[in-house]
Structures are given as C-alpha cells and as structure tokens.
Amino acid sequence: MQSAVKLKPKEEEVHVRCPKMSATRYRRFLKLCEEWPRDEAKKARDLGTFLRQRVASAFREGENTQISDPEKCDHMYESLVRINDNFYRQRFPRVRDTSFTGVTVEECKLLLSGNVQQMDEEKKGLWKTLMERFSKSPEDVPEKAPEK
Questions:
Q1: pLDDT at 75
Q2: pTM: predicted TM-score of the whole model, two decimal places
Q3: Is 29 exposed, middle or buried, given 0-12, 13-18 or 19+ CB atoms closer than 10 A?
Q4: What pLDDT, in 10s, does the model give residues 77-119?
Q5: Are 85 and 79 in contact (CB under 8 A)?
Q6: Rounded to an integer, what distance in angstroms lies between the CA atom of residue 76 and that of residue 83?
Q7: What single DSSP character describes residue 139?
Q8: Every domain of the chain and the residues it spans
Q9: Which positions carry the signal peptide feature in this UniProt record (predicted)?
C-alpha cells in the first residue's frame, strides 16, 4: 500500500513515504492521546503527559511529518493501544488488588502522588510504617568490630 522511491544507493537507502500514511498515523496517535487518562496528582510523572510530549516531539510537522521507520511506529502504537484498553489486565486478572506490601490500590495511588506534604498529614502512620519497612537507617545497622 505504501509507495516508496529509492533516492540513494542501497547502503544509504532513503524512502519517501506516502504523506497520506503519515497523516493517518498522526491522527491515530492524537486520538490515543485524547483517550489516554491523565492523572493530575502525578503532574510531570504522569504517563499520559509523557505520551503527549513524545507524540508532539515525534510529529513536529503534524500530518506532514516523515516517519523514518513506519513499522516501528505502528508497533509502538498498537502496544500503547493494548495498554490503554487494559488488554493485559483482562487477559491476566489479578486475584487481589494488593501487592506484597499489603497496601491497597488507593493507598498506593496516594503514595505515588506528588502531594507528599498532604500525604504526610493525612496518612502519617502508613507513611512511617512503609519507610521503616523498606529502608534502614545507619543507626539500625549494627556496627562491625574492626577485623584483626
């Protein structure tokens, strides 16, 4: 379906792709960005925000952007669609919605949010418990006697 014209010798092949296909890919990525949820609590660490930035940088010229590797672009798009559609969550359902720490989904979201001060005030007990469980301060580690 794609028309390609060779412009240089085989070792430096450059293809001129059909602009219609680039426009289609661009529109598909824009639609995916619109559908992708954005978590305002995470601010700059949100996957939806990161995806929007990457699409903007990859398609700087919008529909006129020339894609160097269309197969890779299509593969990336399909992978992101599967993640957005919860394909793997439905295919491999979880028995419980907790992790090995015993933290619930809501508590985990709170821990991962950017509002650390708010979290400290609201869930100070949980935060201290997790910090004690997963990090040891130098005071907790017994000192070794010098070797002779």
A1: 94
A2: 0.57
A3: buried
A4: 999 999 999 999 899 988 877 777 777 878 777 777 766 555 5
A5: no
A6: 11
A7: T
A8: 11-91, 94-136
A9: none
For residue 56, the one-letter residue type is A
- Round to whole Å and give the CA distance between 50 and 4: 32
List Cβ neighbours of 3 (8 Å cut-off, separation of 6 or more): 17, 18
* Residue 117, both tokens: 């001060």
Q: Which two tokens stand for residue 32?
A: 């995916």
Assess contact for 24 and 50: CB atoms under 8 A.
no
Number of H helices, E strands in the chain: 7, 0
CA torsion sign for 120, 121, 125, 126 is: negative
DSSP track, 29-88: HHHHHHHS---TTTGGG-HHHHHHHHHHHHTTTGGGPPPS-HHHHHHHHHHHHHHHTTHH
Q: Which residue has the tokens 């949010």?
A: 113
Cα–Cα distances in angstroms (integers) from residue 39 to residues 31, 51, 92, 109, in the given order: 18, 12, 24, 10
Residue 52 corresponds to which tokens in the numbers above?
Answer: 């929007």
Quick check: 129 pLDDT over 50?
yes
